[in-house]
Amino acid sequence: MTLLFYTNPKSRGQIARWALHEVGADYEQRIVAYGEEMKGAYQRTVNPMGKVPAIDHDGQVVTECAAICHYLAETHPQAGLLPTAQERAAYFRWLFFAAGPLEQAVTNRSMGYAPPEDPSKQGMLGYGDFELTMDVLEGWLAAHDHVCGERFTMADVYLGSHVAWGLQFGTMPEREAFRDYADRLTARAAWKEAKAIDLELIEQSPTPG
User: Fold this and answer.
1) Omega into 77 within 30° of 0, i.e. cis?
2) Could you give the CA distance from residue 38 to residue 15 in angstroms, rounded to a whole number?
3) Which of 7, 85, 133, 164 has fewest C-beta within 10 Å?
């Protein structure tokens, strides 16, 4: 089987690469440069959104980081990162919480958008407000080492990436539960391996003059 990984090291592709290493996938990378390359043939043939990451698994294209993460867990069950029957509720709840309310709340705040104070209008956003989103996530992580409790699953790759990046770049508040969670995940061998590859690629990339 052939698994092609389309990415740029300065992108959410870092999430997908971590997932690839967690499942021990045999993959070939395709670095897609920002600009004309990402909006040219790549956009026409791989991802119409013109963004990375994406994977092509024997002709089956998957985009969107959360989908890529779960797809890899399903196609590499030997890695043991799928939820058990008892873990499924938490697994999917927090996987999609990260892809929806969390990313939306962080992005809106980073871009200077403040939700209206009218509760009915806040409800249209899907996350209410930034503080509510952070409080809900903190409550879960303060009581659980991982998304599904004691055991690491693929949902932790996706949620954990958001938390680690949020702390690194200051887009999420420095709270003990967030810091402890990020520290647990970034100590994993697969995270270190994947991160080292992307950092090397970033160092090798040309710097705009």
Assistant:
1) no
2) 18
3) 85
